[in-house]
Amino acid sequence: MTTNDVSPKSTATGTRPVHTYSIVAIDNENGDMGVAVQSHWFSVGSVVTWGEAGVGVVATQAFANPAFGPKGLDLMRSGLSPAEAVDMLLSSDEGRESRQLTLLDAKGRVAAHTGKLCIAEAGHIIGKGYSVQANMMLRRTVWPSMARAFEKARGPLAERMLGALEAAEKAGGDIRGRQSAALLVVRGRSTGRPWADRLVDLRVDDSSAPLLELKRLLKMHRAYESMNQGDEELEKGHMRAAMRCYSAAEEMFPENLEMRFWHGVTLANCGRLEEAVPILRQVFEEDDHWRVLLKRLPKAGVLKADANSLLAMIKTK
Which overall architecture, per CATH, does domain 2-205 show? Predict the structure, then answer.
């Protein structure tokens, strides 16, 4: 583990004053790569977080230069190591001492830079397959707390990175407070389908509690992920596996009418009307618009069961 701590008194102007804390990391088991960030700055994810499947991830912050995101990815895609890419990006940058920049590639190699003019408290720690970095923090314990939390965490990469952000907040976080957060995870190997290679892509642009909202969104993401998996299992004819996926999604968000509605539709399409009816009845009782939608599904080929017969069963049961 390598560290870099700076406590400068000078400030400098830059492209975007996105003072913040962040983490870049790779999942050593499956190769997924991610970057997560929180800041007292509007829409931090639009500036700091960058990633591409099969290439790497970038965090550009402090007096951030957003161009370092796409340029850093271009350099790593061309074959440069993160260290070589960081050196090249900073070599012609007059504002380098006001920048914080971290790159991680698909091999798990990491390079980080904290300029001497980054506003205290500022620094970074590079560990095995990850780096944490922060500037304008309340205390110097913020990024070490992030490193410890990430190393101790278990589970999916997104949840582990979110845990590191939560540890930063508990250690004092940004001296100004909090406003936005973002979380991005991409595949270690590209499938050639960019829409499928961005495994998690969540942003909270303006909130009094961005990490709480990001955590809620990640849970919602996992629920819809489970729903999608259920659809895939259904296409393969694996009914039991599909029902397990749908049930898991609903357990995460039992108040979500859409998940329950499509669960009921799926059961109806499989001829399991006795199971579909109570689910759909409860959905309709909470919002009758779903009843109207059900009537429109046969024309689109989405509902195989007879809609009128199904609605009659819901009324009479």
Answer: 4-Layer Sandwich (3.60)
pTM for this entry: 0.89
Highest mean pLDDT: which of 211-215, 224-228, 240-244? 211-215
Rounded distance, CA 45 to CA 268, Å?
A: 41
In one-letter notation, the amino acid at residue 5 is D
- 150 vs 193, 268, 315, CA distance in Å? 29, 44, 53
- Looking at domain 224-316, which of 1.25.40.10, 3.60.90.10, 3.30.2350.10, 3.40.605.10 is its CATH number? 1.25.40.10
Residues 6+ apart with CB under 8 A from 278: 317
Contact between residue 52 and residue 209 where contact means Cβ atoms under 8 Å apart: no
Write the pLDDT tens digit of every residue in 27-81: 999 999 999 999 999 999 999 999 999 999 999 999 999 999 999 999 999 999 9
Separation of alpha carbons 311 and 237, rounded Å: 26
Comparing CA positions, the residue from 155, 156, 166, 106 lying closest to residue 132 is: 166
